[in-house]
Amino acid sequence: MLSPADVLSAILTNPTDINHVRFLATPDVTYASINYHNPDLNKIMSCAGTSHGPKGIVKTFVDVGRFLEIQSFKPEALFGSDTFTAMFGRLTYKSTVLEKVVATPFAVFSKVAKGRCSYLQFVEDTFATGASLRSSGSWTFRSDPHGGEVVI
């Protein structure tokens, strides 16, 4: 039986192969991609959000491939317990439509029991991802209680 860290690593080596993912995940695996539920982000990237089952993982990674061309995926740390695993690293991709290159940190969290993943969560710099998909216009923000607006 694979360790939780080995299960996580194995899923990420080939997340678009349904037979591969089915072997490593429970039938009801929950996958959270970037966030749990964000309708505005879904307008930009339909692959963001929560899905269930191995098909949800595969569909998400296939859809991500339509938006982003992965140029490098470099895990820097992988550790965990007999149930939980975390991976941190660097991800570089190019948006397929606008061809903007982004380098971002990423984090993946998983829950594994008896050699099968039941929960998987992948997060990265969503602001950078959104910027790589932005074709025009500006964004206006107000975050500092003592400052003004910032326009990017």
Architecture overview:
- The structure is a single chain.
- By secondary structure, the protein is α+β, with helices and mostly antiparallel strands.
- The chain has one domain: Nuclear Transport Factor 2, Chain: A (Roll).
- It is 30% helix and 42% strand.
- It has five helices and eight strands, in the order ααβαβαββββαββ.
- The mean pLDDT is 93.
Q: Summed up, what is this model?
A:
By secondary structure, the protein is of the alpha+beta class.
**CATH topology name:** Nuclear Transport Factor 2, Chain: A
Count of helices? 5
Number of domains: 1
Proportion of residues in β-strands: 35-45%
**Main CATH class:** Alpha Beta
Taking pLDDT < 50 over at least 5 consecutive residues as the criterion, the unreliable ranges are none
Order of helices and strands: HHEHEHEEEEHEE
CATH architecture: Roll
Describe the global form: globular
In angstroms, what is the radius of gyration?
17 Å
Strand order of the largest sheet: 2-1-6-5-4-3
Q: Strand count, sense and closure of the main sheet?
A: 6 strands, mixed
Question: Portion of residues in helices?
Answer: 25-40%
Number of strands: 8
The structure class reads alpha+beta
Q: What is the end-to-end distance?
A: 49 Å
Mean pLDDT: 93
Comma- or semicolon-separated keywords:
152 residues; alpha+beta; Nuclear Transport Factor 2, Chain: A; six-stranded mixed beta sheet; two-stranded antiparallel sheet; 5 helices; globular
Give the arrangement of secondary structure elements.
Elements (H helix, E strand, L loop, with lengths): L3 H10 L4 H7 E9 L5 H6 L4 E4 L1 H14 E13 L3 E12 L5 E13 L2 E9 L1 H8 L6 E2 L8 E2 L1
Parallel strand pairs: 1-6
Antiparallel strand pairs: 1-2, 3-4, 4-5, 5-6, 7-8
